[in-house]
Design a protein that fits this description.
The complex is a heterodimer of chains A (478) and B (255). Chain A has 478 residues and is α/β, with parallel strands linked by helices. Chain A has a domain of 297 residues. Chain A is built from 11 helices and 23 strands. In chain A, the strands form 3 sheets. In chain A, strands 5, 6, 8, 10, 11, 13, 15, 16, 18, 20 and 22 form an 11-stranded mixed beta sheet that branches. In chain A, strands 4-3-7-9-12-14-17-19-21-23 form a 10-stranded mixed beta sheet, covered by helices on one side. In chain A, strands 1-2 form a two-stranded antiparallel sheet. Chain A is globular and about 65 Å long. Chain B has 255 residues and is of the alpha/beta class. Chain B has a domain of 171 residues: Rossmann fold. Helix content of chain B is 35%, strand content 26%. In chain B, the strands form 2 sheets. A 6-stranded mixed beta sheet of chain B has the order 6-7-8-3-9-10, sandwiched between helices. Chain B has a 4-stranded antiparallel beta sheet with strand order 2-1-4-5. In chain B, strand 4 and strand 5 form a beta hairpin. Chain B is globular and about 55 Å long. Classes of the chains: A alpha/beta (478), B alpha/beta (255).
Chain lengths: 478, 255
């Protein structure tokens, strides 16, 4: 039976992360030039090598063109109309009040920052606009030899590691957005897991964009030393605003011999309204490098937000017997556009990769899978299995797949399976005939469809992801 | 008319532009078992779909009264929550959704505020599965996905036992020869039979009516009930087929 009270609650729940934290911020004026970069570097009190590195990236970026090959359309971005640095103003007297306000904001987002409330098995780095505002469980991790801090702190405290690994997976000039990020990145997380350690705590970063017209340029670097293991989770939200905002991130993962990195994302940036006004442009370069023998990198992403997503978490499988995995659920609704997928580059012998992609489109959205499986001549006995499924809800959305397989070693085996389906009237009738309402029935079918991906998420995040998708689906049926 | 009575009055329904039901009248009293037979194309499946509210069928005239409410405008889920159950002849698969998850969702939705604790639910589920000779490994399989005919039948009956409807429609139009399936159906029905449960069995073959003994039998031809009788009519149909009814009514009906 329809229940008005719960119905209206659901409407407000549709994007419950859309609130804004009202604080004074310390921001740079809009616009981008070499002075902006020097100013960012100065705000962060960076060493000269870092400033030089940024400037080099900026000069590179100036010569590059914004990519337009993705299956998405948007008006030109004015890079001079963006604010590249915004941080909560935290001067002596009000410092404590700001810290409390930050804690309250993240508490409201379901991310407790006070150590007394912290989730037992999870350490959190909280990034608010351009800066990391807190990192929990640092001491406990330090005792084990794990470094978990903001990238800003890592530049100061662990320059040798940053210099050794930064841009070693995603070169500065890799692509337009990676170059831009290298020039202006403001914060993100840094992880180093020492040899032989299975990190018993899940590490996570929560990204929050708050200030208006501000771009967020996240930079994350994770290094798993020989024989180590780490599970890392990131979450993202932003206030509901009617103007687009840019989030251009670079994430680099390095797995040395026998190491394993499991990287999970629940991306729930504000997606814009029904008319397609506002929302985040999520232009992200994520790449992992299986550098050593028998190393493994696994990406799991649940993408349910952003006006536009341009994102291809990839793995370079260099070490012999290394393993790459990509599990993805991409849900688009309203006028959202997603062009997402992965690249698996097989370099070493006996390397294996698995791709499972589930795209769900509703409303007037556009959802594309784009994938590359590349087997180089050196990759004897490489194997890839790709499963790529699309589901359409309603008749005004679209789904596309652009899979490319390049195989240069004849001992390799690649398999590709793809399906496109609609939720059938018969399925809906059957489920509803058992007393389950239309929205819950849709959600059951969609969750069943995504099962192979959700089971890869850490337990509690899998529950969260299922709930999140349910909320997103509530407004797609009809 | 008492609460549990089912009354179908002058029911007309069409699918796309084709009129299929052309004035069905049927009353099922509390605790009764009715059978509906008829040749292929007479509208038997349509009637079961219309009772449950399939979106492809449109009721153009008439009423269906259950528990004092005319349900023709209700969504299928509302009808289910009112206590109506349709056992499908060909249930669809729902990949990725386990039997356990589905049964929990449907019993919770149907029972509403009276919903059971997980422990009570599991206890009842295990009892019913044991009763239907179903292995517990079933619970982790995906609903109807790759199920054999017999497994699908068990699954339908299991759901009926869990949801405890006051009125069940069983679409058994093709259940003729599979003895195992027939036994499962009759076992389930016999467990629910009682003053609070009414049943309409829809079939093409009389065989099933040896397992489920109807109090009343109706013959549907060309969208209308043309004959109603007691259990003795089953035997007559078995011996003579539908031809004699057709002759009696002087209609050209495709068998």
């Amino acid at each position: 039976m329809p229940n008005l009270e719960t119905d209206s609650k659901l409407v407000t729940d549709e994007y419950k992360y859309g609130f804004e934290t009202l604080i004074q911020s310390d921001a740079l004026p809009k616009g981008l030039n070499e002075d902006t970069i020097r100013a960012i570097s100065a705000k962060k009190n960076e060493p000269q090598w870092m400033t030089d590195w940024r400037l080099k990236a900026y000069r590179r970026w100036q010569k590059m063109k914004e990519p337009r090959w993705a299956d998405v359309t948007y008006p030109p971005i004015d890079y001079q109309d963006i604010c590249y640095y915004s941080a909560p103003k935290r001067d002596g007297a009000n410092a404590e009040a700001i810290d409390e306000e930050m804690a309250r904001t993240f508490e409201r987002l379901g991310v407790p920052l006070h150590e007394r409330n912290a989730l037992a098995g999870v350490a959190v780095d909280a990034v608010f606009d351009s800066v990391s505002v807190a990192t929990t469980q640092k001491e406990k991790l330090a005792e084990m030899g794990v470094i978990f801090c903001s990238i800003t702190e890592a530049i100061h405290q662990h320059p040798e590691l940053v210099q050794k690994y930064l841009s070693s997976v995603v070169p500065v000039g890799d692509n337009f957005f990676a170059a831009l990020n290298s020039a202006v990145f403001t914060d993100g997380s840094f992880v180093y897991v020492p040899k032989g350690l299975r990190c018993p705590i899940e590490l996570s970063t929560y990204f929050r964009i708050n200030a208006v017209d501000t771009g967020q340029f996240e930079r994350t670097l994770i290094i798993a030393d020989e024989g180590s293991y780490v599970s890392y989770i990131e979450g993202c939200t932003a206030p509901s605003r009617d103007r687009n905002q840019l989030h251009a991130a670079v994430v680099e993962l390095i797995a040395l011999e026998g190491a394993e990195i499991k990287y999970s994302t629940v991306q729930n940036w504000y997606a814009g309204d029904d008319e397609g006004r506002g929302g985040i442009y999520n232009f992200v370069t994520k790449r992992g490098h299986c550098r050593g023998r028998k190393s493994k990198i696994s990406w799991t992403q649940v993408e349910v937000g952003s006006a536009i997503t341009w994102k291809y978490p990839s793995v370079i499988l260099e070490g012999d017997h290394s393993v790459g995995e990509f599990y993805s659920v991409a849900f688009t609704n309203k006028k959202m556009q997603a062009d997402t997928g992965t690249k698996m580059i097989h370099v070493g012998a006996n390397t294996r990769s698995t791709i499972v992609s589930k795209g769900i489109s509703a409303g007037h959205s556009r959802n594309s899978y784009r994938g590359l499986v590349q087997i180089l001549p050196s990759a004897a006995n490489a194997r890839n299995h790709t499963q790529c499924d699309s589901m359409l809800i309603g008749s005004t959305c679209s789904a596309n797949t652009y899979p490319v397989i390049e195989c240069e070693n004849e001992t390799a085996i690649t398999e590709h399976e793809a399906t496109t389906s609609k939720i059938s009237e018969e399925q809906m009738f059957y489920i509803m005939s058992r007393g389950i309402d239309e929205e819950s029935a849709t959600s059951l079918v969609v969750n069943g469809f995504c099962r192979d991906v959700f089971k890869e998420l850490p337990m509690e995040f899998s529950v969260e992801a299922i709930k999140l998708l349910e909320i997103k689906l509530e407004h797609s049926v009809g | 008319m008492s609460d549990a009575d089912i009354k179908i009055v002058n029911l007309h329904a069409r699918c796309e532009e084709k009129a299929i039901l052309k004035g069905v009248n049927l009353t099922i009293n509390k605790g009764e078992v009715h059978a509906l037979m008829g040749p292929n194309g007479s509208g038997k499946s349509t009637l079961s779909n219309v009772i449950m509210g399939h979106p492809s069928y449109e009721v153009t005239e008439g009423e269906i009264w259950i528990k004092g409410q005319n349900i023709v405008e209700m969504e299928p889920d509302e009808r289910a929550r009112l206590g109506i159950f349709l056992a499908f002849q060909y249930p669809v698969a729902i990949p990725g959704v386990t039997v356990a998850k589905f049964l929990k969702s449907s019993t919770d939705a149907t029972l509403g505020e009276k919903k059971k604790s997980a422990t009570e639910f599991l206890k009842e589920l295990r009892e019913n599965m044991k009763f239907l000779e179903m292995n517990e490994a079933f619970l982790n399989r995906f609903l109807n996905d790759g199920f054999s005919g017999g497994e699908k039948k068990r699954m339908e009956i299991l759901q009926m036992l869990m949801l405890k409807p006051c009125f069940a429609v069983m679409d058994e139009r093709d259940s003729g020869l599979d003895i195992d399936a027939l036994q499962v159906v009759s076992k389930g029905v016999n467990k629910l039979t009682g003053p609070a449960f009414s049943l309409l069995v829809i079939t093409h073959y009389e065989r099933i009516l040896k397992h489920i003994k109807p109090d009343h039998l109706h013959v549907l031809i060309d969208g209308k009930i043309v004959m109603t009788g007691g259990p003795e009519l089953v035997k007559e149909l078995e011996e003579k087929g539908y031809d004699w009814i057709r002759q009696e009514f002087g209609q050209e009906v495709l068998v």
